[in-house]
Amino acid sequence: MDAKPERGPLSESSELLFSFGVIADIQYADLEDGYNFQGSRRRYYRHSLLHLQGAIEHWNKESSPPSCVLQLGDIIDGYNAQYKASEKSLELIMNTFQRLKVPVHHTWGNHEFYNFSRDYLTNSKLNTKFLEDQIAHHPETVPSENYYAYHFVPFPKFRFILLDAYDMSILGVDQSSPKYQQCLKILREHNPNTELNSPQGLAEPQFVQFNGGFSQEQLNWLNEVLTFSDRNQEKVVIVSHLPIYPEASDSVCLAWNYRDALAVIWSHKCVVCFFAGHTHDGGYSEDPFGVHHVNIEGVIETAPDSQAFGTVHVYPDKMMLKGKGRVPDRIMNYKKENALHF
Q: Where do the Calcineurin-like phosphoesterase domain residues begin and end (predicted)?
């Protein structure tokens, strides 16, 4: 009988099934370093490209390459629009991503909408809906064209769902459209400030212009996909630019109707992890239902001598995030009834 191979530090209890990469808030611009809106944190606009190149080199060299990479939104900075450099900067970043040997799934954040309209994004290389999985005989799991969301299966019994956190938003939509008027009304009802990006004095500080929310239509679709996953004993990872769990995030960075999204997720057993960007600071918390909420630290505020990305190693009983630079390592055990038995 063959001797058992040595177990590495990342596989203490079980065999590695697959892995995937995560990176957030690259926000590239061909600009000198600047600061965030509060003037408290440095932003490295040019260097973010070098950080991305480093992450891609790392993933390409991994002994067992990731099955895919999740890009969590804000791929180029809003400043590009001011300098009429949106298309040029996006092309540079997308050409860089082409060096990656595995598929990348792109999430849309507020900076995508500072640079481009929703129609433009739908017809751009940032639309990775062509990578979606289609479940035969289950039309209710097919997303509508009204929002940018889809699901895919990187490994049997694991379903990833990419959500559109700006489905309800005043960003990227025509100001004459009913949707814009409806979202502006919601925003103004919760935010009386003249400057709609200011959370000052708000009881619910997430109601600012740089955030958005999930339409009921999208939440109904999410519910249908999670119902299918529950029935088929799948494990689900959800991906969104905006976080939805207050304990893992600055309250100003949450999706407008984060409670509605949590209510859908908590009514199912299959969700194990929720990955988001947006906060730049990162964050983590396991909720009472055993869902791990992970906010990935933003590339844009990462010093040149550091890094900000990670690889998530997936096992039958847990996921292990191996972070680089500012992104810490994390062990995310599944709830007992969620462990897979192979």
A: 20-281
What is the C-alpha separation between 315 and 17, in angstroms, rounded? 5
Average pLDDT over residues 287-314: 98
Question: How sure is the predictor about 339, in pLDDT bands with cuts at 50, 70 and 90?
Answer: low
Place of tokens 């990935």: 296
pLDDT per position as a tens digit, 19-59:
999 999 999 999 999 998 888 999 999 999 999 999 999 99
Q: HEC string of the chain? A: CCCCCCCCCCCCCCCCCEEEEEECCCCECCCCCEECCCCCCEECCCHHHHHHHHHHHHHHHCCCCCCCEEECCCCECCHHHHCCCHHHHHHHHHHHHCCCCCCEEECCCHHHHHHCCHHHHHCCCCCCHHHCCCCCCCHHHCCCCCCCCEEEEEECCEEEEECCCCCECCCCCCCCCHHHHHHHHHHHHHCCCCCCCCCCCCCCCCCCCCCCECCHHHHHHHHHHHHHHHHCCCEEEEEECCCCCHHHCCHHHCCCCHHHHHHHHHCCCCEEEEEECCCCCCEEEECCCCCEEEECCCHHHCCCCCCEEEEEEECCCEEEEEEEECCCCEEEECCHHHCCCC
Q: Which residues contact 150 (CB under 8 A, 6 or more apart)?
A: 129, 131, 132, 133, 143, 161, 162
In the prediction, which pLDDT does 37 show?
81
Contacts of 242 (CB under 8 A, 6+ apart): 109, 165, 211, 212, 253, 254, 255, 258, 276, 278
